[in-house]
Amino acid sequence: MVARNEIVFQDFSPTTNDFRCEVLKGLFLEQKALPFKLLYDTLGSLLFERITQLGEYYLTRIERKIILEHRNEISRLIGPRAVLLDYGSGSGEKFELVFQALESPHAFIPIDISKTQLLETAEIFMTNYPEMEIYPVCVDFVRWIDLRYVPVDTGLRKVAFVLGSTIGNLEPPMAVEFLKNIALTVGPEGGVLVGVDLIKESRVLENAYQDSLGVTSQFNLNLLSRMNRELNADFNPEFFEHRSLFNPRLNRIEMHIVSKKPQVVQVSEFPVGFAEGETIHTENSYKYSIDGFHKIVDEAGWTVDAVWTDEFHFFSLHLLSSNAKC
Questions:
Q1: Any domain includes 136
Q2: Does residue 293 share a domain with residue 145?
Q3: Which residue of 1, 114, 223, 248 lies most exposed, with the fewest beta carbons within 10 A?
């Protein structure tokens, strides 16, 4: 039996070769595109935490308010002695707001692709909650998480948290698969609390992803510096710029890195050409109506237990129960 004040770390983090393969595959597409998860190296994760504190980035502020107003009801619906999985845990701050209201939670499994921040979050929770069993898992969390490698009591209810804009970063078919994979992870009695950003005025959305301090620009362009560091690339960030825009047809914010001029960049000894104005598509953030998101929930095989939103219907939290037969 693992001591309750001992962290058991499962490391399935992508290798440098994995990173290289995804980058080269994406940069040779007709529309250059890289998976949003690649934005979250150590520095990228820190920059994203700064973004969540910006005035323009309403998502974190409103989600926090919803959690504080409804966390006792959320706790009642989750029930006692649950095993808690926090997908894309980051600093764990919002998750902790719910955690503090829960009745005798049994174990905490933070899951993130950024190893440094993941371990820092686990250490903070171990210090603050020394009786809690903590099992951080570093992995691309869109996949099924195999809990056979995590020494938790299999008879306890498992509840996942997918807070912030994580579900919106996924293409709708991938969001369906992600929720199906969570159902397989938490099992037939499991649950998930999902944050969903709602459709609203495009001006509000665009300001949230093009902040006046330029932190989102730093976050996006850091991907170029990461490729320089890890893949021996020679991107000059001064020759590129950050751009975000709202795509009304697809109800999503798109983030791009834009080439300011014609240029050729070496990436792991492969030449990659850019025309002036050509972009690398780095991230989407889909916005849903509540009914629109529930169509995804239905397709993924979950049941809606409760929905909470703010007074302006900017953001929403959805508590779902698993129908998985596994």
A1: yes
A2: yes
A3: 1
DSSP-assigned beta bridge partners for residue 272: 265
Secondary element (H or E) of residue 226: helix 215-231
Q: What is the CATH number of the domain that holds 146?
A: 3.40.50.150
Do 255 and 241 share a structural domain?
yes
Residues 289/315, Cβ–Cβ less than 8 Å: no
- Rounded to two decimals, what is the model's pTM? 0.91
Please tell me whether residues 118 and 196 are part of one structural domain.
Answer: yes
89-148 pLDDT per residue, tens: 777 888 889 989 999 898 899 998 888 888 888 888 888 888 888 888 888 878 777 777
Are 205 and 254 within 8 A, CB to CB?
Answer: no
291-296: long-range contacts, CB 8 A cutoff, minimum separation 24 = 293/167, 293/196, 293/318, 294/318, 296/172, 296/175, 296/176, 296/179
Question: Which domain, by its residues, includes 144?
Answer: 54-200+287-322
- Phi, psi (5° rounding) for residue 195? -90, 135
Q: Quick check: is 271 in a domain?
A: yes
147-156 exposure pattern, b = at least 16 Cβ within 10 A, e = fewer: beebebeeeb
